[in-house]
Design goal:
- It is a single chain.
- The longest helix has 19 residues, at 2-20.
- By secondary structure, this protein is mostly helical.
- It has helices at 2-20, 24-40, 44-60, 64-77, 81-97, 101-117, 132-148, 156-166, 172-188, 192-206, 212-225, 231-245.
- The two termini are 30 Å apart.
- It is built from twelve helices and no strands.
- The chain is globular and about 60 Å long.
- The protein has a domain at 169-253.
Length: 253
């Protein structure tokens, strides 16, 4: 069982590294084996956490229905407060991508309640990354997606600011994505001056990170900046385009 447990951890890590370098097929294969190994180790919740990684990639690849299917299975297997909250948060985010505001609010609200009750002091290290900051990030991208479909009530920028405020030390890559997301959200919300200032901060940070996920967020930033023609936003576009071009978002599996 110890061997299978260690294998599940290694497969989860290898899958995420593959995903972050654009090797999506390879990532799914690693994660599938990780779920199997977790089952053999008798760690159902470990398998649930790995499935949420698989669902994250499905969202990233524009396949929210597949993501929802994976999360539906995960929800029936989660037993720990931390994994239940993680699945609920991720499920809400998928419903937002599908434009279902009511379902998104319901699942995100479940995660809110679980976080408020506390996720327990015995949560394993492999799920310790899921906290209020991570959930705020899920709320941010949910609000962004709903706003893009002319739905939703709270500005995405507020949630991105919450996520940045709550992030613990050591999550620099995620902070970069939060910063890029904040800048894009401000542009979407008509705050061109604030968006440009936030974008330059985000790009300074993004230049120090080699990640296809960050490159994808830069493309989102470019889309959000498109309506503006000021000199400050033109500079943002130039810098973001150069960084995005230097980091291809897909590599053959």
């Amino acid at each position: 069982m110890v061997v299978f447990s260690a294998t599940a951890d290694l497969a989860a890590l290898a899958g995420w590294v593959s995903h972050d370098s654009g090797r999506y097929g390879t990532a799914q294969r690693y994660w599938s084996y990780g779920v199997y190994a977790a089952g053999e180790a008798g760690q159902r919740d470990r398998g649930v956490e790995i499935v949420t990684r698989m669902s994250h990639q499905m969202i990233y690849l524009g396949r929210p229905d597949d993501a929802l299917g994976l999360l539906g299975v995960a929800a029936t297997k989660a037993t720990m407060p931390a994994t239940k909250a993680l699945v609920a948060s991720q499920t809400g985010r998928v419903h937002a991508a599908l434009g279902d505001e009511r379902a998104a609010d319901r699942h995100l609200g479940v995660a809110d309640e679980l976080l408020a009750d506390g996720l327990g002091t015995d949560a394993p290290e492999w799920v310790a990354y899921f906290d209020a900051a991570e959930h705020a990030g899920a709320r941010a991208v949910s609000a962004r997606d709903l706003a893009g479909l002319d739905r939703g009530r709270r500005a995405a920028s507020v949630h991105f600011e919450d996520a940045l405020r709550l992030r613990k030390p050591g999550f620099e890559r995620v902070k970069v994505m939060d910063r890029v997301g904040l800048a894009a959200a401000l542009f979407d919300e008509g705050e061109a001056e604030r968006g440009a200032a936030a974008a330059h901060q985000a790009l300074d940070a993004a230049a120090r990170v080699d990640s296809t996920l960050v490159a994808s967020r830069l493309n989102t930033l470019l889309d959000a900046a498109r309506p503006y023609t000021t000199a400050a936003v033109d500079e943002v576009r130039t810098r973001a385009a150069e960084l995005a071009a230097a980091r291809p978002t897909t590599i053959a599996a």
